[in-house]
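Pipeline run #58 for the internal structure catalog. This entry was flagged by the ingest filter as a single-chain record with no existing model, so it goes straight to prediction. Upstream metadata was stripped on purpose; only the residue string is passed forward. Reviewer on rotation: M.T. Logging verbosity set to normal.
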Amino acid sequence: MNKWISASTVAAVITLVGGVAGAQQKDQPQESSGSKDLAATTHHLELTVGTGYAQGFGNVGDGQLALTDTAKAGGAIQVGVGYRIIPQLTLGVYGSGSMYGRGDQVDSSTNVYSATTGVEATYHILPAASELDPWVSLGSGWRGYWEHADQGTTSMHGWQIAKLQVGLDYRIDKQIAVAPVVGVDMTTFFTQSTPNSNGWDSISSPKVNAFLFAGVQGRFDVPVGSDSSQVASR
């Protein structure tokens, strides 16, 4: 099921990128040289959506099952909204949702989920005049983790200390790109609620865990302000 969800989302991202690119090319006059306008974008609203493999590793804390005991590899969807303040730098917010395969140390009725949200900065290395634009992003925020079973739900909440991702945008158009992405984030969980507890308890000696991601991402730059009026007048 997780593989089917990931494959379907990848197909949807690719279809969306292709559809938007085709619509823009249809609306814009064809250049006689056949070259693309790949000038650097700036003062644009930047939207991202991606999907791929996700998995957590590490010990949560004293007396807790390891992440690999509760969950195996799964799929994730990531979204982001940012503002390109200069050609090289975007500042924004992100969110993600993941569903994992069931681990060996949990009940057979268990479904395992995770979600994140936070702020991040993305640095573009070749933002202008190149179809290939390597980039790196660094963020920080919140992560939640849930093990939902017939007997109840175990929930954990913590700090996503650092979320690091790198990618290589292929610029289909000045404002559209698709990229392979790999990343890792470091998380520590502080509080936990279980079916046998009354409310929330602190996790004893919380450890730092790693969550990996590898997949594909679409990026869409939407002109705002003076840039949007220039595009509309073309």
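catalog note: The chain is about 15% helix and 55% strand.
catalog note: The longest helix spans residues 2-27.
status: ready for reviewer M.T.
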